[in-house]
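Support request, please re-run this one:
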Amino acid sequence: MTTKHIIYIPGKNPKPQAEQHRELLWKTMLEGVRRADRTTASKLQNRYAQFHLISWNHLFYHAYKDITPDLPWIDALINKHGPTEQDIREASSWRNRLGRMLFTLADHAPFLIPLLPKEFESAATEMKRYFDNIDNIACDIRKLLKQKVRPLIEKNEPVLLIGHSLGSIIAYDTLWELSCQEGLHGKVDFLTIGSPLGMHYVQRRLMGMKENGKKSYPKLIRHWINLSSEGDIIAIERNFNNSFNGMIKQGLVKSIEDHSHGIFNYYRSDDGLNCHRSYGYMVNPAVGNIIADWWKNN
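Re-run finished. Output below.
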């Protein structure tokens, strides 16, 4: 019997110590699955050893985050079973719409990035740092994921890669290197949440972008599901079936699905609503349903 594995690649910013971060992600993911499918959640709850975190952030930032201030908010999130009317209003607010418009403009004209509000400029700057591979940092980060995923693919064990935000870029590039440079054969399933992979700025810099034909894309993805919440400005282009249609045409992937309408990330903290936060995605039954279906069918 094969062993199923879920591998989570986090997004930007310093994170807690690896084991503490992994426990919090597991806790919110399990709650999301429970909301979607109680039976599958009960089967999953004793499989913590099969949930893997690629803890790359300390390499990038040389710091860990103190999670203590966030713990009450994560507990509140777990005890909150849907968006409030205020959450829905704020996700669709003029501020979010303006931020999305500015980020879209900067995506096509990168010289505008320094003019963006601080949080958007930070996201663009850190993506640039990754793509510039300063001090070989991007290669070192991808090496961490390769060390985990390569032996599982070689053993033909079912793998679901979950990439949040910048983590989805790391996962995509790693799969391209493994298949197109290292010749690894096999398949994983790919779930991207709050992903900037639809941005023109990102796509021009992905691994394989200078290649032609099948070598333009990773060959290791079986099914790709992309999910983004209302108001998540980082996920400014949400139609991956269109953006990566060449993968379907060339038979490299069986399907690319987009889930981007009517999904709300209702994580709140002292800073207010955060439509991009990983815990808010993981606890959401829309994500839970995808994970539950994958677990049942693999």
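Residues 5-297 form one domain. The first helix runs from residue 18 to 36.
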